[in-house]
Design brief:
By secondary structure, the protein is α+β, with helices and mostly antiparallel strands. The chain contains 3 helices and 9 strands.
Length: 134
């Protein structure tokens, strides 16, 4: 069902400093910040040869990233995103197997302009999983 790893998302307390660290210290290609109001985040994508890193910063006080950073002030890995060919078929198969799909189960448009869903971390070894249709 899942395809390639699309990205690993890291919540950061200082988006500008984190982007600079990847660009200046690690020599990575760093994209521009993009606000994603539907998800309550500002995201910056780091392009790697085989995948991406997504830096996440809260967009507003109700952001899920704000809550994550309250518990993890230094930041940390927030989720892992896998690609799927058909997000609705993946959702239905996962729900049938007992996995919990967050947010009512309806896909939202993600940062890449494609439908995404999130799966409950308690169903996946404590890891929040994002699925993105390719």
């Amino acid at each position: 069902m899942i395809g390639r790893l699309n990205h690993v998302a890291i919540a950061v307390p200082d988006l500008e400093a984190a982007a600079a660290q990847y660009r200046d210290t690690l020599g990575a290609t760093v994209g521009a910040p993009q606000d994603e109001p539907d998800h309550g985040v500002t995201a910056v994508f780091i392009e790697l040869p085989n995948t991406k890193i997504e830096l996440l910063y809260p967009l507003g006080e109700a952001s899920p990233i704000a809550g994550f950073l309250d518990k993890n002030p230094s930041g940390g890995i927030h989720h892992i995103c896998y690609e799927v060919d058909d997000i609705l078929a993946a959702r239905d198969a996962l729900a049938a197997s007992g996995a919990r799909v967050l947010g009512g189960g309806e896909p939202k448009i993600g940062a890449h302009g494609k439908p995404v869903l999130f799966l409950h971390p308690k169903d996946f070894n404590g890891t929040l999983i994002e699925l993105e249709q390719v």
